[in-house]
Write a structure and sequence with these properties.
The complex is a heterodimer of chains A (111) and B (275).
Chain A (H helix, E strand, L loop, with lengths): L8 H14 L12 H8 L3 H13 L3 E4 L3 E4 L3 H27 L9
Antiparallel strand pairs in A: 1-2
Chain B lengths: L1 E10 L2 E11 L4 E5 L6 H8 L7 E6 L9 H4 L2 E4 L10 H8 L8 H10 L13 H14 L4 E5 L7 H13 L6 E5 L3 H4 L6 E5 L2 E6 L1 H7 E4 L10 E5 L2 E7 L10 H10 L1 H9 L1
Parallel strand pairs in B: 3-7, 3-8, 5-6, 6-7
Antiparallel strand pairs in B: 1-2, 1-4, 8-9, 10-12, 11-12
Classes of the chains: A mainly alpha (111), B alpha/beta (275).
Chain lengths: 111, 275
């Protein structure tokens, strides 16, 4: 996996995971790889993957069945969508508006 | 678990390690960093029982490694920076020498060799240094040890082998095993070593997880220069600056910048992590 320079790696991995939930690579109630399996797959320390799974569990995107493993929540897609839509409206849209006005462009370019 | 207490070691009159204390826990892949000559290899060879502490002690799961108790030796593996070019085919070397490790698995040895694209029928003393290193890494992992001490394991590996190595370390070590990797190639291993130990002349500057590091120090990749930065390096896209984390926000730890910050501000960094 390639990482950019700015955000902690565990956040970048969590974001990549959410993308996979959105595009359907991870379906509802599907089992996901164990911490070590996932670490080995993407070449990242198990401690880092553990933090990813803790974050996603806290957000309700995955859940842990004790002794069996981690699974994608039934409503994971809705949860990711809600969070990412809110973030898009809050951060990216104002940035796009600023850029449009700086460059003297009209919002109709999106149509 | 390995508990190192007040360990000292010198070569003749030249002291290398002085009064070092360090605790290493199972389930971790430690990155042991330090400038040339600070004693990384000395420490690894002490940990695995090849050398005897002159002062202080090392206790590995309740045992002293220098006693060379076969039960402990069968649970640990020390891989030297330049491993021996044995006059034997890799597969033969594996099955004969592997018997010294009770959990050695020949099928696993052959599987890892094939992941590294090394021919198991080649004589080890006719291999290139990279091939030989990969053979030894495969053999080490096939021993299913609990304590691994790897001295510069990515030295001499070609580009695809480095990523193979990162994956193999996670895939082929147990959940409770401890791996200590000494390295100068932090970029090769940046994503797989955590916690980080920085060894300095006769001292341990830092022994902390990446999470602890990113809580104590902030790695700023922006272009705005901070006057209180412990370390500043200009990069093509701006700069990397390291300063004490006051906002609580986490950033991506850059190991080279961490190392340089720790070296230029030893007392500040030590104090930050000893709180």
């Amino acid at each position: 996996m390639e990482f950019n320079e700015h955000k902690p790696i565990y956040i970048q991995i969590a974001e990549a995971f959410c993308e996979k939930v959105l595009d359907g690579s991870f379906g509802a109630d599907e089992r996901i790889p164990s911490v070590r399996e996932y670490g080995s797959e993407i070449g990242v320390n198990p401690n880092t993957v553990m933090r990813v799974y803790e974050k996603l569990t806290a957000e309700g995107i995955i859940y842990n069945k004790r002794g069996i493993g981690y699974f994608v929540s039934a409503d994971a897609r809705e949860k990711v969508l809600a969070v990412q839509r809110a973030e898009f409206l809050e951060k990216e849209v104002p940035a796009i508006k600023r850029r449009l006005s700086l460059l003297g462009l009209d919002p109709s370019v999106f149509l | 678990m390995i508990e190192v207490s007040n360990l000292s070691f010198s070569y003749g009159l030249k002291p290398v390690l002085k009064n070092i204390s360090l605790r290493l826990e199972g389930g971790n892949i430690y990155g042991l960093l330090g400038e040339n000559g600070v004693g990384k290899t000395t420490l690894l060879t002490l940990l695995c029982g090849l050398k005897k502490p002159q002062k202080g002690s090392i206790v590995t799961d309740g045992r002293n490694p220098f006693d060379r108790d076969p039960a402990l030796l069968g649970e640990q593996f020390y891989l030297a920076d330049e491993p021996a070019p044995v006059h034997a085919k890799a597969c033969v070397f594996g099955s004969s020498t592997g018997s010294l490790w009770p959990k050695y698995d020949q099928a696993k040895f052959l599987e890892i060799l094939s992941e590294f694209e090394v021919d198991p029928d080649q004589m080890m003393d006719t291999m290139s240094s990279g091939q030989l290193k990969k053979t030894w890494i495969s053999f080490a992992l096939a021993c299913n040890a609990r304590h691994y001490f790897l001295d510069e394991p990515t030295n001499g590996l070609d580009i695809p082998s480095k990523s193979q190595f990162r994956k193999a370390i996670m895939k082929h070590t147990g959940e409770d095993s401890m791996v200590v990797i000494s390295t100068h190639q932090v970029r090769d291993l940046e994503e797989i070593i955590d916690p980080i130990i920085i060894l300095d002349k006769e001292d341990v500057l830092l022994n902390a997880s990446l999470e602890q590091i990113s809580r104590k120090l902030f790695f700023d990749y922006g272009t705005q220069i901070h006057s209180d930065a412990l370390y500043l390096e200009h990069t093509p896209s701006g700069a990397i600056q390291v300063y004490p984390n006051t906002s609580g926000e986490e950033s991506k730890v850059n190991l080279e910048a961490l190392f340089n910050a720790a070296h230029s501000h030893k007392t500040t960094v030590k104090a930050l992590f000893h709180e």
